[in-house]
Amino acid sequence: MKRWMKYVRPYLAYFILGPLCMIIEVIGEMVMPIFLAAIINRANEGTLTISTSIGIAGLMVLTALIMMAGGVGGSYFGSKASVNFAADLRADVYKKVQTFSFSSIDKFSTGSLVTRLTNDITQMQNMVNMMLRMMLRAPGMLIGGIIMAISLNPSLSVVLAVSIPILLLAVGSLVYRGFSRFAKMQTRIDNLNNTVKENITNMRVVKSFVSEDREEIKFKQANRDLKDAGMHAMKIMIFMTPVMTIIMNLTTLAVIWFGGRMVLNVGMDVGDLSAFITYVAQILSSLMMVTMMFMMSSRALASAKRVREVLDETTDLNDLYAAHPEKQVEVGNIEFQNVTFRYNKTSEEPVLDKISVSIPAGKTVGIIGSTGAGKTTFVSMIPRLYDPDEGAVLVDGVNVKDYSLYNLREGIGMVLQKNVLFSGSISENLRWGDQNASDEEIKTAAEYAQADKFVTSFKDGYDHMLDQGGTNVSGGQKQRLCIARTLLKKPKILILDDSTSAVDTATEAQIRRAFREELSGSTKLIIAQRITSVMEADFIIVMNDGCITGIGDHTTLLANNTEYQEIYYSQMEKKEAK
Q1: Spacing of C-alpha 165 from chain mean position
Q2: Which element (helix H / strand E) includes 398?
Q3: Residue 210 Rama label (left phi>0; alpha psi -120 to 50; beta)
């Protein structure tokens, strides 16, 4: 409970007022049968007068109005408390996910995180709302009903002493079985979300490979699994209703049977029997509420466990122990000191193996090598997207772990292999690089990135709305917008991970020229597949199988490095052949 009290405390007034209002309704429930019994008994005795009837009826109307006020107040405060509880919890879970490293995201999967942020927290919200409305009302009706029933006729109350334990035993058994089933159902929701997200995100690939049928089969399987898990869980609810109804009806029949005999033989008042039957109905309905509360709680507890897993996840990339959290990237020197890294920590083969290299500030460095050589992983160490298993990465002579993540990444600009744009206008996307950039600065950055020409061709220009992921612009246009966004940031270190692969060589040459002019003092690391993209670099790093196999300028490497020669001649020969 300590974990969740954080989300209760700010709205404690709502959490208190909601149940108190429901208690008002419960008191009314207890009083109403007494008024009804008084009318029946006096009518049966022949002592009921018009004035007495009007008086009792007036009290009943007043009680009903007070009950209504209590019920409305309880529902209102319960809703306020539960909605605010869920909103704050969702905000904290989202904030926690933002701190996750790539490995943490891979551990949970994107679909699972979406489910936990939406469906699981909604289940918890529903439970809080129900608990505030029922946690005092149901026990209050149960205890009050038992007390009132015993006070009316202790002998007849023996019926309840038999039926209530049977009912509680049935409830406990059903709740115990329900918990694991609801947990399994939430996992199936994860799987369905993952399947849908993967299909929609990669729709173009699916269509280009004409794989709609295959994806439909995957979806049907995930959907069927969720349906089966849902039915398996709902069977508990389905089975519970008739069990509860049978026990309630048998109890009511027993009360009528024995109570009727008492009216005939012992002289029990008919009004008291009527009130007793009403109290029995209240007791049994309160038990039904308790049962529903437990069933709903079992699903919510399964969801709470999943939400807690996200909140308790230890983020392996943080700046809690940063020695210089206030320091900023000011120059752009980079140094790798014997760096080794594995994605799978139990793997024998490292992705990067004892990498040592020094990159002076302001230099343009090309990085080239075969697919899977470790180029992207190499540059990902600089902004701490991953931490090395061994060795250290230094920026401006300071270990990257000693910077705050914000200050470190604020000084580094990255244009990734997968260019990501967000739904919104082009100008809104470009302002990710600088929130305060003027329209003129945005236009200048776009001109440097060779994006201004196609942007101004749109009817709305820089106000042109992009679809999610930038699917309504071409790959080359998307790359140029991402480059413009990074240029606006004016970083001290610029990392380009094969970021001009979708543009022609002439446009690429103009972009490289813009880097030299606009970011002349910045350190630039350019990962490329085309050798023409790095030939003009101050020096080039050649990588293979996680190791650096050569460092030097184009002329030096062409003369001395076998791997560089193979790349150069294979590409140049193809170019000449064309």
Answers
A1: 41
A2: strand 398-399
A3: left
Alpha-carbon distances of 14 from 10, 31, 285, 478, rounded to whole Å:
9, 26, 26, 49
pLDDT band at 551 (very low <50, low <70, confident <90, very high): very high
Read off the tokens for 553. Answer: 């300028």
Q: What is the pLDDT of residues 246-291, one digit of tens each?
A: 877 888 888 888 888 887 777 777 888 888 888 888 887 787 777 7
For residues 367 and 378, the answer to whether their CB atoms sit within 8 Å is: yes
Q: At 29, which amino acid appears?
A: E
pLDDT tens string 376-389:
899 999 999 888 99
- Residue 543's φ and ψ, nearest 5 degrees, are -120, 150
Whether 298 shows a pLDDT value over 80: the answer reads: no
Count how many Cα atoms sit within 13 Å of the Cα of residue 245 in the half-sphere of its side chain: 6
Share of the chain above pLDDT 70, in %: 97
Sheet holding 398-399, edge to edge: 352-359, 334-341, 390-395, 398-399
How does pLDDT run across 335-354, given as a tens digit for each residue? 999 999 988 777 778 999 99
Burial-class residue 573 by CB neighbours within 10 Å (0-12, 13-18, 19+). exposed
What are 557-564's contacts with CB under 8 Å, separation 24+? 563/369, 563/370, 564/368, 564/540
Paired sense of beta strands 523-527 and 364-369, if any = parallel
